[in-house]
Amino acid sequence: MKTKNVKAYGTPAPDAILSQMDIDRRSIQPKDVEIDILFCGVCHSDLHFARNDWGMTQYPVVPGHEIVGRVTNVGPGVSKYKVGDLVAVGCLVDSCKSCNNCKNDLEQYCPTWVATYGGPDKYLDTTTHGGYSESVVVTEDFVLSVPKNLDPAGVAPVLCAGITTWSPLRHWNVGKDSKVAVVGLGGLGHMAIKLADALGAHVTLFSRSPNKTQDALKLGADQVIISTDEQQMESVQNNFDVIIDTVPYAHDLNPYLNTLATNGTLVVVGYLGPLDPMLMTVPMIMGRKAVAGSLIGGIAETQELLDFCGKHNITSDIELIKMQDINTAYERMLKSDVHYRFVIDMASLK
Ligand code: NAP
Ligand code: ZN
């Protein structure tokens, strides 16, 4: 297959820094859209993946799954997009389209979904490469439309941080009478607060960081509970319908389980791996409380979210960086020093 060589930023090994490299993009196929990348958000998953935290990374890896860009070319079979459109690509670039999950708009749970980076490329003999690059070629069914009224840089984080919190909020029917709590104020956490607030819920932030209180209130939280303060934790026992836990590393879920109301659900979206310490079943049994997980969202649900953001004028609070600043951004993300999502201005790579 013919390919086009483009500039990208990636890493050849778990202990190497990210640096400039060349990658191949496939030539346009009949249903393909070629996108000139304008902005790409920086997710904590990019860092986990670049450093092989999940033990599954194949190198080299070019991260980035919060992509906003302009259409520069379309295949003859493309009907939804034309040259010049402002579009987005999130965490998924393909799936089987025939399994039950695909038929139900849950492509993220398709056994053979293709991740935007690090997945098996269906066309080239490599893994897929993400949005830390000049351009990308994606089949039109996995390309999303960006509302015209929104700032394109601020939209980028909606594609992962937004949809990852939106999908559980919708699945667990969050609305006007809901009491929602969010654990951790980072990229996912700040979008969760904005979205739960826009859905009309009463929103609480659990944070280790007292210095984030004012920001959380401005983002739409009604209260902030400092998770290391036992008295504050005691004050919210048996309280929440849904908790969205965005913390990226192993931590004790038990104190949060106790703050769920009867029939409440704690949805883990942040940490992937075995729990430590173990879960205490007493509150689950005595209060029919549940612990669940959730993965990004399907294509239709992501478009629903983009349209919701357009209608409610919601974008991410971002710090715009140059591609060359990515290694510093990762170090700051590890210290939870992000207000509240880094977004790469891809003009810096061109
Ligand atoms: P982030 O911007 O780094 O935010 C994480 C927040 O968690 C921090 O700001 C911090 O908030 C809190 N935290 C608590 N303990 C921490 C610790 N030991 N180290 C660092 N932070 C800690 O990360 P993100 O981009 O929101 O991503 C969060 C997690 O979600 C990552 O693990 C990512 O891989 C995962 N993720 C999952 C999905 C999915 O589909 N399920 C999708 C995207 C990302 P406070 O200072 O307020 O405590
Ligand atoms: Zn992500």
What report would you give on this structure?
The protein is built from 11 helices and 17 strands. The protein has 350 residues and is of the alpha/beta class. Strands 3, 4, 5, 8, 9, 16 and 17 form a 7-stranded mixed beta sheet that branches. It binds NADP nicotinamide-adenine-dinucleotide phosphate (NAP) and zinc ion. Residues 43-45, 48, 160-161, 164, 184-189, 207-209, 212, 246-249, 269-270, 294-296, 333, 336, 338 line the site of NADP nicotinamide-adenine-dinucleotide phosphate.
Strand and helix layout:
Elements: E1 3-10, E2 19-26, E3 32-41, H1 44-50, E4 67-74, E5 86-89, E6 92-94, H2 100-103, E7 114-115, E8 135-139, E9 144-145, H3 152-155, H4 161-171, E10 179-183, H5 187-198, E11 202-207, H6 213-219, E12 223-226, H7 230-234, E13 240-245, H8 254-257, E14 260-268, H9 282-287, E15 290-293, H10 299-312, E16 318-322, H11 326-334, E17 341-345
Parallel strand pairs: 10-11, 10-13, 11-12, 13-14, 14-15, 16-17
Antiparallel strand pairs: 1-2, 3-4, 3-8, 3-17, 4-5, 5-9, 6-7
Helix pairs in contact: 4-5
Bound molecules: NADP nicotinamide-adenine-dinucleotide phosphate and zinc ion.
The site of zinc ion (ZN) has 4 residues, from loops.
